[in-house]
Amino acid sequence: MRRYWLVFSQAVTVLLAAYFVVGTLKPEWLGRTGAAVVRGVSLVEAPAATVSGPPPSGSFRQAALKASAAVVSINTSKAPERHPQTNDPWFRFFFGEPGSQPQAGLGSGVIITGDGYILTNNHVVEGADEIEVVLNDSRKVRGKVIGTDPDTDLAILKISLDRLPVITLGNSDALQVGDQVLAIGNPFGVGQTVTSGIVSALGRNQLGINTFENFIQTDAAINPGNSGGALVDVNGHLMGINTAIYSRSGGNMGIGFAIPVSTAKLVLEGIVTDGVVRRGWIGVEPADLSPELMETFGVKAKRGVLITGVLQNGPAAQAGVRPGDVIVEVAGKQIANVSELLSNVAALKPGTASKFRVLRRDESMDLNVTPGLRPRPPRAAQQR
Question: What is residue 13's three-state secondary structure?
C-alpha cells in the first residue's frame, strides 16, 4: 500500500511540474492568455496578433494604410532677402554680416494622379525657391509648381517618379456632420501622423482665410506641417485638403478647416487644362441683409443677398439686375449670404448664361445672366 501511495505522489508531482512549465512557456496550449515576467513581476499578456490579420473592431487601420501611402511631406527653402546695404563695409562693421541662412518651410501634400500631380496649399509653396517632396516610402524628389490659386489657397505640384501611389477621390458633397474622418500629414516635421475625429460643421465661410471659403470643419488634430495634407473618410477616400486651424496657442485646439475635394478638383482641372482657374463674375456690389439696408432700399425679403451697386455695362447690368434687388438663387442653388453668392457665381462658366432668381420689391423674377471672366486681383491684394 505504501508503494502505491509513493507512485501516486510522484505522478502528481510530475504532472504539476509539467502543468507549471506549459502554463509559463506555452499558455495558449491551455487556452489561457500569456504570462510574462519582468524583473520578478508576473504580467498577463493577450495572445500575439499578426499584422496581416483582421483589424480590431472600430479600427481605422485599413483607411490609414490605403490613404497614407499617397500623402507626402513637402520641404521648401527660400533664399534670404538681401539687404540693400549688404556690400557697404561700414554697414557690415556696425551691424555685422546679415543672416545668410535660407528660410525653411514644412508642409504636406497628396498625390492625386499616377503621373505625379500633387495637391497642396498655396501658402506651403508660395515664394519657395526649392521644393523637396518626400514620399512615405522615403523616396525624395524635386517638385515643380504647375500653378497656384491664391483665392482658394491651393497649389498643384508635379514630380517625376515611377510607381507612385495615388489616393482615391471621394465625394465631399456627401459628407454630413458627425461623420468620422482622419487627418494625415507631417505635423512639426515629426513624420507622417494620422489623427481621427469627426466632421464638426460644413460650409464654414466668412473666416477671412481665403477669398472663396467653403470649409469642412473637423476636430481631428491638425497642427503646423499638416497644411496640404489629406482629410479622408473611413474608407480612405480623399474628402479635403487640410488648410488652417483656429488656435490661440499655435497648436491644435480641436478646430481645423479643410478645403473640400470638390473645390480642389475644379482648381486642378483649371490649372492643368488652361494654366489658370477660370471663374465667373457678374459685376455687382453685394451686401448681407440688415435692418438698416432693408429700410434704405425698401426690401422686405427674409433671405438672400442685397445688391447695393451694379457695374455699368457689366454682366449683371446687361441682364437687368438693379441696385436694391435681392438675389435669392443662382443656378438653382439658394443664396443666404455674400460668401455663398461669391462662391456660386465663381463656379459658373464664363460666357454661359445661368438663371438668377431675384426679388425686386414684392415681385420675384428670373433673369438670365451671362457671367464674364473674373479679373485677377492685384498681387498685393492676393497676399494674406
Answer: helix
Among 73, 108, 227, 339, the one annotated catalytic: 227
The answer to the question of residue 379 being in a domain is no
Inform me whether the pLDDT recorded for 106 exceeds 60: yes
Report helix, strand or coil for 269: helix
Judge whether 366 counts as a catalytic residue. no
The predicted-structure confidence for 166-221, as pLDDT tens digits, reads as follows: 999 999 989 999 999 999 999 888 889 999 999 999 988 777 777 788 899 999 98
Q: Is residue 299 part of a domain?
A: yes
Which one of 68, 123, 149, 172 is the catalytic residue? Answer: 123
CA-nearest of 228, 233, 227, 220 to 194 is 220
Shared-domain flag, residues 187 and 240: yes
Res. 339: pLDDT tops 50: yes
Please count the structural domains in the chain. Answer: 4
Active site residue 153: yes
Domain that residue 26 falls in: 2-45
Q: Distance between CA 143 and CA 123 in Å, rounded?
A: 15
Of 149, 151, 153, 233, which is the active-site residue? 153
- Classify residue 39: in a domain, yes or no: yes
pTM: 0.72
Active site residue 227: yes
Q: Is residue 116 part of a domain?
A: yes
